[in-house]
Specification:
Its cofactor is [4Fe-4S] cluster. This is Indolepyruvate oxidoreductase subunit IorA. It is an enzyme of class 1 (oxidoreductase). Pfam families: Fer4 (PF00037), POR_N (PF01855), TPP_enzyme_C (PF02775). Keywords: 4Fe-4S, Electron transport, Iron, Iron-sulfur, Metal-binding, Oxidoreductase, Transport. Helix 18 links the parallel strand 18 and strand 19. A 6-stranded parallel beta sheet has the order 3-2-4-5-7-6. Strands 15-14-16-17-19-18 form a 6-stranded parallel beta sheet, with helices on both faces. Strands 9-11-10-12-13 form a 5-stranded mixed beta sheet, with helices on one face. It is built from 20 helices and 23 strands. The mean pLDDT is 94. The two termini are 40 Å apart. It folds into 4 domains: 200 residues, Thiamin diphosphate (ThDP)-binding fold, Pyr/PP domains (Rossmann fold, 3-Layer(aba) Sandwich), CATH 3.40.50; 124 residues, 3-Layer(aba) Sandwich (Rossmann fold); 173 residues, Thiamin diphosphate (ThDP)-binding fold, Pyr/PP domains (Rossmann fold); 65 residues, Alpha-Beta Plaits (2-Layer Sandwich). By secondary structure, it is of the alpha/beta class.
Length: 641
Amino acid sequence: MSLLTRDNPGETHLMMGNEAIVRGALEAGISVAAGYPGTPSSEIIETLAKISTDIYTEWSVNEKVALEVAAAASFAGLRSLAVMKQPGVNVAADFLMHLALSGVRGGMVLLVADDPGALSSINEGESRLYAKLMEIPMLEPGNFQEAKDMTRWAFELSESLNMLVMVRTVTRLSHASGNVTLGDLPNPKREAFFRFDGDMLDPMEGPIMTPPVAFKHRAQQRKLELAAEHFETSPYNTYVGPESPELLIITTSICDLYSREVVNLLDIGTRVGIFKIGTTWPLPEKCVTERLAKTKQILFVEEVQPFIEEAVKVLAAGSDLDLSAITFYGKYSRHIPLTGEMNPEFVTQALCTILDLPLPASHDKNSRLAMPEISIPPREISFCPGCPHRASFFSINTVLSLDSRQGFTCGDIGCYSMGMLPGGFFTLKTLHSMGSGSGLASGFGKLRQFGMKQPVVAVCGDSTFFHSAMPPLVNAIHNSACFTLIILDNSGTAMTGFQPHPGLPVDTCGKPAPPMDIEGICRAMGATTRVCDPFDLKATQQQLLEFIKDDTGVNVLILRQACALSPQKRHTRAFEVTVDPALCIGERCGCNRICTRVFSCPGLIWDAENNRAAINSVLCAGCGVCAAICPQNAIQKKEIQ
């Protein structure tokens, strides 16, 4: 039995932040959870799918659908959870705005995981602004116990207000671990029933919709006021320090831990107070104003946008406080960085500057340089050995070069985003949100009338195809755009851990499910569609060359080969790959070391001592593609029976 399902209240266990959130959802008695994979949020749906058989868990095709699936459960009186990372809120935003207005019935929580510093993202989006924009309450846990407790409380709050509640976590909270004390698990489960035949203004018995908008909007704002009243006495807004501190730190989320650590390190606990706000929106105004009145200096410590800083300053401006007597420090004063993750070093730097303290020895560069050096071999960011994307981009790059009309490739986010780097031969020339490569290509594909003759190619993954590439493909075909869409089908949502998608014959829980046929869908839309194995470079390049010469519409090339790290391929090799020392003549070949310098699979190495290529037998995945790029046939492959 997983410790997450133990019904032993009072027990304490070490949990990752995302596990603590799962436990909080279990203690709240959720029945439905839906989401779309995205680091750092992916473990929440995965864990729920593994440990609980009486919760319906779903990887939806995108975040908007996940929010809709969870909302349906709430409308039927169940408690439900929608999970996504920060860019996913943009995808869900249309329905989110309407859901915030219509309200919910069963407790419903939107769990958003932000990624300050973009450790696993291509943006540093800030989801907290959505809580204000959509006018919904937001909670931000500051430690692992709060991640569990606040998640549970969020469902209760949602149900008491008939309002969606947002819980925001960040990478360092989701993926780090700490002690969590268990609460009780509920029993029995609820039954689902959607009531719709009451008065249309009855939130519990009538139809659920946004009209009459003005009435519903006033009701929504009244609910937000009630949330603020709850927040005034919330135990998740905490203060430590002297009654009237020389400096007050106002912080939230994981930054509370950084602040506590630094105040401890500098031994300034008698001078500095730390006010951690867990109920971030709407602000508990009385609570905040009382703290402001007891100090003359305030430092805001938060990540990415100055969300709390701006909200507190607006509150202060409308209060009776003498603002001329208060000095504010934070992102606007540049004492806290405007971008990236926070850490104790930034807090230390800010506090030492404001309080005129010497920096501790750990901040001394000379002290750092005195530390023993650890030799770490340099490693370029690249595709894994045996990754089919390397072969795909090699073919795309080769074909566009052969065509010589300065064709280009539009991409989006996934493992294949590395197509913009040397390991992907600098193939991608645009990189934005999921599905945007296809959308941009749809636009580029209509510029023939303005003289553009460059071939246009777009790439997307198989999961992205279902998530957000289908609408731009429909748009392109309907509007007679001209481009080639290459679907890099590696049989799973590889970047986030091989979660299933509608193209696979299993669902989120591993049960059989009807797969959607990608090529059948593309053909039904009207696109000329072919399927190739990217490891077959000759066939792939021949088909792609034929497609980009076609100026008549949209072509789709599906390059299908499972990810080298996928469960079905891991620890298996199709070929034994070797280098014939008699044929590899190294620098004298004239190939300019295309295998190790350009193709640069980690399974291929340059043996400088013997002046020739060699195979790293530990890393080689046995795909055999490198044998096709060697002009001397020195790299040889032998099928493993």
